[in-house]
Every structure is written in C-alpha cells, then in structure tokens.
Amino acid sequence: MERGQSTVSKIISPASPYGVYGFRFSGGAGASLYELFAVGHQSIAPADSYSWDGLEREDGPLLLLQYTVSGAGEIEVEGRRSSVPAGHAFLVEIPGQHRYYYPRGGSEPWVFYFALFRPYGLLTHWEDIKRRCGDVAAFDPAGSVPALLEHLYREARQHRISDAYRASAHVYQLVMELLHASSEDHTAGESASGKITQAAEWIRLHYDQIKSIDEVAEQAGLSKYHFIRSFTRTVGCTPNHYLTRVRLERAITLLRETELRVEDVAQAVGYTSGSYFIKVFHKWVGYPPGEYRSGRRHQSFSHLFFQ
Fold first, then answer.
1. What is the mean pLDDT of residues 212-222?
2. Residue 256, CB-side half-sphere exposure with 13 Å CA sphere
3. What is the topology classification, in CATH, of domain 193-294?
4. What integer pLDDT is reported at residue 234 of this predicted model?
5. Which of 22, 184, 197, 247 could form a disulfide with 269 if both were Cys (CB 3.0 to 4.6 A apart)?
6. Whole-angstrom Cα distance, residue 215 to residue 177?
7. What distance in Å separates the CA atoms of residue 183 and residue 111, rounded to the nearest whole number?
C-alpha cells in the first residue's frame, strides 16, 4: 500500500444516522502521529445485546471515550458501578478491568458517540484527564467535547479522514479539548460559585484601584485564606495571578492604542512602581513594554491572551 493510503472499514446502513468507522493507516510511517482506531455513533435498544468486557477484548491497547447523547448505559470499573446518563461520558483503557453495557430494565435506547485511539504518545495526557475527572465525567451537551465527537463522526461518515495526518490532528484536538474541559480553569467558567464569579468580575472592574487581595476577599465576604483557596480552585489560578493578567491585558491595549509613557501606563493599570511594572511585563510577555510598543524585533499583536 502506498504512503498515505488507508483502509477504512464501515459498519453502517445507508439510511441510518448510526454507524461505526474503523481506520488502519499506512501513511505517516516514522512520524510521531496519534492513531485513530475507530469512531462511531450508535443507538442500543432495550432488546439489543450490548456488553463489552475490557479484559476480554483483543483489539487493544486502546483508549476509549464514550459520550451519552440520550438514554443511559452503565459501566463497572474495578467493581464500582456507575450510570452513564445523557451529558456524561466514560473514559477507559483497553485492556482494562471494566465492563460497560446496556442496563437491565432499561426502557429507552442508549444513544452515544464514541472514539477509540491508540495510547501511543497520549498516555500522560490521558492520565491527567482521568486524574481530574475520573472514569465517568459530565460534559456540557452544548460544549466542545460532544461537538468534537459529533464532528469527528461526521467527518468519518463523509470520508474526509483520508490519511494518518488528518486522523492524528482529530485525535490531538479531541484530547486537548478533554484536557481543557477537565481542567479547573474551564470548569470555573461553567460552574463557579456566585461569590467567586462576582469577585472575578470585581477584579476586572477595579484592577487599577486594588491595593491588596484582602480588599477582594472582603468584597466576597470571605476570609482571606478561604477566598484564595476557593478562587484558585474555581478559577484555576490565584487571585494575584488573575489580577496581574487583567492588568497586563489592559496595559497592552494602552501601549498599543495610546501614547502614554510606560510609567503612566503602569499607574493606569494599578502599579505604583514603573520599574516593577516593567519587570512583571517582561516576565509575562517576554520583552519590556517599550520594546513591545516599538514592535521592531517581535511579532505585534492586536490582543495577547494570558492564562
């Protein structure tokens, strides 16, 4: 088989929206590519026989992400049984001590998307994802993870995953989105407590006046220790880190759009010392504010995002 060719196996009825696509690529030999093994969209009816035992499968090693669209399935991992209802996914390794199946007594179809890929080059990321969200995790039905799974299936169904490089790109994008969705930083945006959300907004409105984090904790009605811990858990960074990020984003706008002196920019965003502002700016951006403004030796930006 020539480089770039692929073998794509299909289990699908032309009239059905459901199907399973498998991929075996010969292209990309010698390259560090991520290997897509299969992607599918299935509907398991109460009368169907559906059960997979992770220790009995012979197609591993594989990593499996399976997301429920409607209905519910069940999974047992090392003796722990969990439901996998709509809006939830399970993540397992094959081979592994698990079994997933259509639950006895179920009354409606279990509809889901799944993706199988080889673990090569991905285990560190996968373990990080599992450490954050466990074997079964909730993902917003309107969020990026379900959307990427649906997109991946649609691309497979329309024969657009035609070589190892495209397949690798899809796998990488999905795994990165899983990392993002399972991170505390992302979770913060979707489920932050009211007080912490209000505190973050207060920082964005008063960044130029804040003298210490004690002020923000007081605004939130929390002790400083509890506030810092809750803010870090919810937002994914400390309050000081968040405040610095907000200040530098504003500083970059002022450097780009005004002729204010660097010392005046420092004052405008809440720094009492111009030299300290220059030090912080250099550490975060990679060069001093004056050099950023001149744009002679680096790429200029309309906006610079920090995390």
1. 90
2. 12
3. Arc Repressor Mutant, subunit A (1.10.10)
4. 77
5. 247
6. 35
7. 26
Q: Name the amino acid, one letter, at 259.
A: E
pLDDT at 190 over 50: no
In the chain, DSSP assigns E strands to 6-12, 19-25, 36-44, 51-53, 62-70, 72-77, 80-85, 88-94, 98-101, 110-117, 136-138
pLDDT at position 184 over 70 = no
Q: What is the pLDDT of residue 194?
A: 73
Q: Is the dihedral of CA 123, 89, 60, 17 positive or negative?
A: negative
Arch. (CATH architecture) of 6-182: Sandwich (2.60)
Instruction: Provide the terminal-to-terminal Cα distance of the chain, rounded to the nearest Å.
Output: 45
State yes or no: cis peptide before 239, omega within 30 of 0.
no
pTM score, two decimals? 0.61
Every domain range in the chain assigned CATH 2.60.120.280: 6-182
Helix axes 224-235, 184-191, angle to 10 degrees: 100
* CA dihedral sign of residues 36, 17, 5, 9: positive
* Exposed e or buried b per residue across 103-141, where buried means at least 16 C-beta atoms within 10 angstroms of its C-beta: beebeebbbbbbbbbbbeebeebbeebbebbebbbbbee
